[in-house]
Write a structure and sequence with these properties.
It is a single chain. With 671 residues, the protein is α/β, with parallel strands linked by helices. Helix 8 runs antiparallel to helix 13 and helix 14 packs across helix 17. The radius of gyration is 26 Å and the shape is globular. The structure holds beta-D-galactopyranose and zinc ion. The site of beta-D-galactopyranose has 9 residues, from loops.
């Protein structure tokens, strides 16, 4: 599958904002020459161009964009064309203030910034449709244009009267009767019973802020609103030409919307990845971004695009570090190893002013190609050309599946339990993922609704599956029965998707599969610890200790301390033709690495490189090639299983290969 069928090649380029440079014609000419030099083949144009495209209500000016697109195309550069709904012009906010969002405290925003429209506003929708249609009519058939980039990084929600009305309609559809809403929101508590739909308002800091079921429904509603807006834009542009695919750029494990759901409204998934290199441990940082790349690939189970990344530094961290030598190529190969079909940047050229004038860009204020950043970018362009044979080769089918579920994440957060500030669902999924990534196995993600067929997997891991939905209990039961290996952890099967706690023993409907039941949830301060004793080994436990009882399960590990010392912490149960593990406490990375190492070996799950890799080094497979990446600040020697050729340097290594600090190579078997 190709993300951009009109130009089936790795895309290299990024956000291009020529509308900020219209008074500098020589700069616009020079851009093309520099893009060619940097081996840029595609740029995203028009992302925040509404004020330039429609300077006055209903009066469009496309002349400048015609010239930009024609100039790019004459230079052999393709265009990812954006719709401008990510920011609205000042005249619109002035004339129709209802296009601006109403916040969490029911206050309306003023004009300024971006990403702050009301998704319900009929005027905003009408204006968006009109400009989208005009753009599509003018450019969808242009040979340069290969993809629609809808809006920019959709985020947030709105509490204006129109959105409130839509929220009530959403709830009426979900619950039918007000009594049902009262039942699911458990409104008998604190005398919150609603007697009229008009009394139902969005959750807020000055009204109802503490009802978990309501909050989760609000997030579902916000997702539905965003999806509806995206679908409207998609339909509008594709009414003109249905063959031009649509993407919307997503963000790292983003809180506001359920991305599995949102992804249904786009043809191609793309996202903006901004790791913070050289602040802490780069290997840990890389593993979280690898996880999100795999998640993005999994949203539609197809290749995805890296739509933005920085060629050097960002400007919005507390401390902004430039990439050390090697890191730009290395960090650009990371998404590729997980299945991406592009390396794109924010942004092509640094603006002279505005909030991002000092954010990294391919071309700086000096305007030359003679910079370290420009050379790094060119090197990535060259690497992508060398890797062209891998373009439409995906990763080999994964044998391991992890569950990651947005609705579960929201449910854990709003439930007000345990470590109230942060139960750290994301961190937990990442730590389990990291152990598997390090082992060089391929990993798919599914949410509870999406995982209709688990039979293609040998190992399914469901960390912190607090809320069950989509019949997941039955799906997991069948998977184990038929011979699969299941891993579950603390919090499993505690509440239903209807917002209510499960009654009876938990994990709900899975106690026989797991051979255990859970009894109490203890959480620790950061200074407190417990330990897991398993076999001859002792591993540290932090933050979360669930007290469980083993029914039919074999106790593989026990707690080392506290009044529950000696009680089960790690268990294994045979069920049907498979087995189900339960890990009741939060253990350190070392334990997860050792435990998953044994599981992967026992299940004979394929690994990118079967050898032991030194600290900081990871190997990932794609299209039969091995992306060997060194995130350590020192060189590393890696033993190879045989003669291998590095596609990036076209050299052959015999028994071992030496990777410099932040070095990367892409290896295939050599004759
Ligand atoms: C992204 C955004 C870009 C730019 C970039 C800076 O989130 O889409 O427009 O602001 O961050 O890192
Ligand atoms: Zn609104």
């Amino acid at each position: 599958m190709n993300c951009t069928p009109r130009f089936p090649a790795f895309l290299h380029g990024g956000d291009y904002n020529p509308d900020q440079w219209l008074e500098y014609p020589e700069v616009l000419e020079e851009d093309i020459r520099l893009m060619q030099k940097a081996k840029v083949n595609a740029v995203s144009v028009g992302i925040f161009s509404w004020a330039k495209l429609e300077p006055e209500e209903g009066k469009y000016d496309f002349a400048w964009l015609d010239a930009v697109i024609d100039r790019l195309w004459a230079g052999g550069i393709h265009v990812v064309l954006a719709t401008p709904s990510g920011a609205r012009p000042a005249w619109m906010a002035q004339k129709y203030p209802e296009v601006l969002r109403v916040g969490e405290d029911f206050r309306q925003a003023h004009f300024g910034n971006r990403h702050n429209h009301c998704p319900s506003s009929p005027v905003f929708r009408e204006k968006t449709r009109a400009i989208d249609r005009a753009l599509a009519e003018r450019y969808a058939g242009h040979p340069a244009v290969i993809l629609w980039h809808i809006s920019n990084e959709f985020s947030g929600d709105c509490r204006c009267p129109a959105c409130q009305e839509n929220f009530r309609r959403f709830l009426q559809k979900r619950y039918g009767l007000l009594e049902e809403l009262n039942r699911h929101w458990w409104t008998g508590f604190w005398s919150m019973t609603y007697t009229d739909w008009a009394q139902v308002e969005p959750p807020s800091s000055i009204g109802q802020g503490a009802n978990p079921a309501m909050w989760v429904d609000w997030r579902r509603f916000s997702t539905a609103q965003c999806k509806d807006f995206l679908a409207m834009e998609k339909e509008t542009v594709q009414a003109v030409d249905p063959s031009l695919p649509v993407t919307a750029n997503l963000m790292h494990l983003f809180w506001d919307y359920d991305y599995f759901d949102l992804a249904e409204a786009m043809d191609v998934v793309s996202w903006d990845a901004y790791p913070s290199w050289h602040i802490g441990d780069d290997y840990l940082e890389a593993s979280q971004f690898a996880m999100t790349h795999d998640l993005m690939r999994s949203l539609k189970d197809q290749p995805f695009l890296l739509m933005e990344s920085t060629p050097s530094l960002v400007n919005w961290q507390a401390v902004n570090r430039v990439k050390k030598p090697g890191m730009h190529l290395l960090s650009s190969m990371l998404p590729l190893a997980q299945g991406a079909q592009s390396v794109m940047y924010f942004q092509w050229r640094k603006g002279r002013g505005g909030a991002e004038m000092f954010h990294g860009a391919v071309v700086g204020h000096d305007g030359t190609a003679d910079t370290r950043t420009f050379r790094d970018v060119t090197r990535v362009g060259e690497a992508l050309e060398k890797l062209a044979p891998l373009y439409d080769s995906p990763k080999a089918p994964a044998k391991v599946c992890m569950l990651y579920d947005w609705q579960n994440k929201w449910a854990i957060h709003y439930a007000q339990m345990g470590r109230r500030e942060n139960m750290d669902y994301d961190g937990t999924v990442i730590s389990h993922y990291r152990a598997l990534w390090k082992l060089g196995v391929n990993i798919d993600f599914r949410d509870m609704r999406e995982c209709t067929d688990l039979s293609q997997y040998q190992l399914v891991i469901a960390p912190m599956l607090f809320m069950t939905r989509g019949g997941i209990e039955e799906k997991l039961r069948r998977f184990v029965e038929q011979g699969g290996t299941l891993v579950m952890t603390y919090l499993a099967g505690t509440m239903g998707e209807d917002g209510l706690a499960h009654l009876g023993r938990t994990p709900h409907s899975l106690t026989d599969v797991l051979g255990i039941h859970t009894e109490e949830l203890d959480t620790l301060t950061d200074a407190q610890h417990n330990s897991l004793r398993w076999g001859q080994r002792v591993s540290r436990i932090s933050q979360v200790c669930e007290l469980i009882r083993a029914d039919t399960a074999e106790v593989v590990g026990t707690y080392g301390e506290d009044f529950y010392a000696g009680t089960p912490c790690l268990t294994r149960n045979h069920f049907g033709a498979g087995e189900a593990w339960y890990l009741a406490a939060r253990t350190e990375d070392g334990m997860l690495a050792a435990w998953y190492g044994e599981l992967i070996r026992a299940l004979k799950i394929p690994r990118a490189l079967p050898t032991e890799l030194p600290d900081g080094v990871v190997a990932q497979e794609r299209g039969g090639a091995v992306f060997l990446q060194n995130y350590a600040p020192e060189r590393r020697i890696v033993a190879l299983p045989g003669r291998m050729r590095d596609l990036l340097t076209d050299t052959v290594a015999e028994k071992e290969i030496c990777l410099p600090a932040y070095g990367v190579c892409v290896l295939t078997a050599a004759e």
